[in-house]
Design a protein that fits this description.
The chain is mainly alpha-helical. 64% of the residues lie in helices and 0% in strands.
Length: 50
C-alpha cells in the first residue's frame, strides 16, 4: 500500500504519513495511529513495536 492509498483509506493526511515513515521529529496522536492500524488491518500494538 502506498502512502497515498493509506491516506485515502485511513483519512490521515499524506504529509502526516510521510513524517511518521521518515522518523522526522514528529509524535503522532494515538487516534492517528489507530486510524492507520485499522486501514492496514493490523493491531495498534504492531505499529508501536520498536
Amino acid at each position: 500500500m502506498t502512502q497515498v492509498e493509506l491516506a485515502l483509506t485511513s483519512g490521515v493526511q499524506h504529509p502526516a504519513i510521510a513524517r511518521i515513515e521518515s522518523n522526522i521529529d514528529y509524535t503522532p496522536r494515538k487516534t492517528t495511529l489507530e486510524k492507520l492500524a485499522k486501514a492496514m488491518r493490523i493491531k495498534l500494538d504492531q505499529l508501536l513495536v520498536e
